[in-house]
Amino acid sequence: MNTILVGAQWGDEGKGKIIDILSENADFIVRYQGGNNAGHTVCVNNKEFILHLIPSGILHKGKKCIIGNGVVVDPEALIKEINHLKKYGVDADKNLLISDRVHIIFPYHRLLDALREEKKKNGKIGTTKRGIGPCYADKVNRCGIRMSDLLNKDLFCKKLKENIKEKNEILRKIYKHKGFSYKELCERYLGYADIIRNNVTDTALVLSEAVKRGKDILFEGAQGTLLDIDHGTYPFVTSSNAIAGGACAGAGVGPINIDKIIGVVKAYTTRVGEGPFPTEFKKTLMDNIQKKGKEFGATTGRPRRCGWFDNVVARHSAVINGLTEIALTKLDVLDDLKEIKICTSYKYKGKPVGTFPADIEILSGCKPVYESMPGWQSDTTDCKEYADLPANAKRYLERLEELMGVKIAMISVGSKRRETIAR
Description:
Layout lengths: L2 E5 L7 H9 L4 E4 L8 E5 L2 E5 L12 E4 L4 E2 L1 H13 L4 H4 E4 L3 E2 L2 H14 L11 H9 L6 H4 L2 H23 L6 H15 L3 E2 L1 H10 L4 E4 L25 H6 L8 E7 L2 E3 L11 H10 L12 E3 L1 E2 H11 L3 E5 L9 E10 L2 E3 L6 H6 L1 E8 L16 H14 L3 E5 L7 E3 L1
Parallel strand pairs: 1-10, 1-11, 2-5, 2-10, 5-7, 6-8, 7-9, 11-15, 14-16, 15-19
Antiparallel strand pairs: 3-4, 12-13, 16-17, 16-18, 19-20
Helix pairs in contact: 4-5, 7-8
């Protein structure tokens, strides 16, 4: 069965753990969008792994992991990640394939990302400053450099020289920055090419053959639906299609080959960076949930903004992704609360809002309409079966299912693999 796993909120839903669990029964695990602006945290044998580019399935022996064409790759970051895994006995070299069509991030992308963000002052997006957006911009502007170019020395040198000439002019005239040395960057990146050359191939062809042979493929999304470039809270979004549909374009696999789409949600809602967030907690509860849920970004370390479960967001996600089931994480973080709220709808200037607004000013002015439920005030981390959960926890989950219109098939009650309930 070929499955897409996608974040159904603003990212950071705990996808890393769910991917890790599902990878056990997959033959191929494919990352299809984003770059090292993402961070998947997986806890294995009390060791915490934070992966930014390499699919989480790499932690299972013998699984083929693919970085698809829709990803943008910083070779320096990728090589560091490979070497870090090697220290813990994970053979990323042997089991990792990289699409020859991925676009490559350069230092000028990272610098432009940071300079543009600084220049915006009060209008900041909240970018990670990893160069993701500028790299995707070059891709769309048809001046990007792909992995296949990097492996063709003459073509790479020609393209890099043209890019640096243009980028240096922008940096000097607009940002008063001296720019970059073509020679230094060329030599450095050709060195990267020598290290990863044997991992680069036509991954779309590899996946096509896997489909023909009836192999199980798991497509791993980064970020979340509300950060999707088209369907998220634009402009406070990432630069790629983080929704399930992005898997087909970002991996080169036809939609007819997809069997299941799993959306990951937290038992509450979080987001990192700027932008509207209707259900955001007040300070005291924010501090409590941040601490208990360890709500700090895996990539940047920034504290995540936390709020009540937002069903307007979840329903929007269910529709946009075509979700067939839900994996819900961090139920245990709510264990101590006496009362739990669910946002069932929005009001704008006192009037009901029927759908998730595209207009960012309207969304910023929306007030959540809440439904309250009693908490369970007992520890759920030792629950192994759905029947073991407190009655109020089950009522909460069943109400979320009813509101979302999608079955909750998996419930996480802790960071470890065993702290997961399958329904």
